[in-house]
Inverse folding.
């Protein structure tokens, strides 16, 4: 678990600034001497001994904050941001960033960041429990930048300007995030393959078992998914995954190819393969 945490908001992001205001309002963040990116830096004081949680604001969009982990000394980076979707469904989201295929929104082609599966799981649980405004609560698949070499994840408000500036949503995300950072819980780590962007079938497993998912590849990225990429998903999920979970129906035309590759990796890495349907009796 991580004691040195950097929370990042962007001046270009309405939702991020909303969450930032809520963090400062609800928790004893105090302004520090000095600046980062010409913006004030806040430090959390008096809550957890041994924990160092700082709140930064950047001028670039979060998805373009490449290698910010080389400029800020922290073990874990959390980006508080907006989520935008064509559906416009009000939502509260978590995910780790990276590009299974081509980098179209920051980051690098076929390169993903380090995903802290248990933190994602706890954040999703906390968002779900605190969701008094009936937003959709989602863990998204791995997507977009920035490129990072330290563990990181995004926690977001979606999906339109109306929701991004919703004060109650900001307060919920701020509270869920701080509960996650202050009281992280261990979990069984896994990666997921297949299914929609919103990981519908994986969500039931995350919320109802001791399993947390780090990196997840959606069905639309399966043509880009090869052995090297799956091995990268495994190596860049913390703690070390003991499971690969397949959304069986959600693999569509790529199913046979993916299964062959996964079975080969399973033997080489001694990692168990399960299907989402295997959990139906348990959840």
């Amino acid at each position: 678990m991580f004691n040195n945490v950097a929370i990042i908001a962007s001046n270009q992001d309405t939702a991020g600034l909303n969450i930032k205001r809520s963090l400062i309002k609800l928790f004893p963040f105090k302004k520090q001497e000095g600046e980062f990116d010409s913006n004030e830096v806040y430090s959390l004081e008096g809550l957890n001994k041994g924990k160092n949680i700082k709140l930064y604001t950047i001028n670039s969009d979060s998805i373009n904050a490449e290698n910010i982990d080389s400029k800020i000394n922290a073990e874990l980076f959390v980006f508080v941001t907006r989520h935008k979707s064509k559906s416009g469904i009000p939502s509260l989201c978590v995910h780790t960033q990276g590009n299974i295929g081509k980098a179209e929104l920051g980051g690098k082609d076929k390169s993903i960041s380090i995903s802290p599966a248990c933190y994602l799981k706890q954040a999703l649980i906390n968002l779900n429990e605190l969701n008094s405004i009936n937003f959709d609560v989602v863990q998204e698949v791995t997507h977009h930048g920035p490129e990072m070499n330290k563990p990181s994840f995004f926690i977001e408000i979606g999906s339109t300007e109306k929701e991004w500036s919703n004060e109650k949503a900001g307060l919920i995300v701020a509270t869920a995030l701080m509960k996650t950072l202050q009281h992280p819980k261990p979990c069984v780590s896994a990666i997921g393959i297949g299914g929609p962007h919103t990981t519908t079938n994986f969500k039931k497993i995350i919320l109802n078992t001791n399993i947390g998912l780090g990196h997840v590849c959606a069905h639309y990225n399966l043509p880009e998914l090869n052995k090297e990429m799956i091995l990268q998903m495994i190596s860049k999920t913390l703690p070390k995954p003991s499971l690969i979970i397949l959304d069986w129906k959600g693999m569509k035309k790529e199913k046979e190819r993916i299964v062959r590759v996964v079975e080969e990796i399973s033997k080489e890495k001694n990692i168990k393969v399960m299907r989402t349907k295997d959990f139906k009796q348990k959840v």
Notes: The longest strand covers residues 76-84.
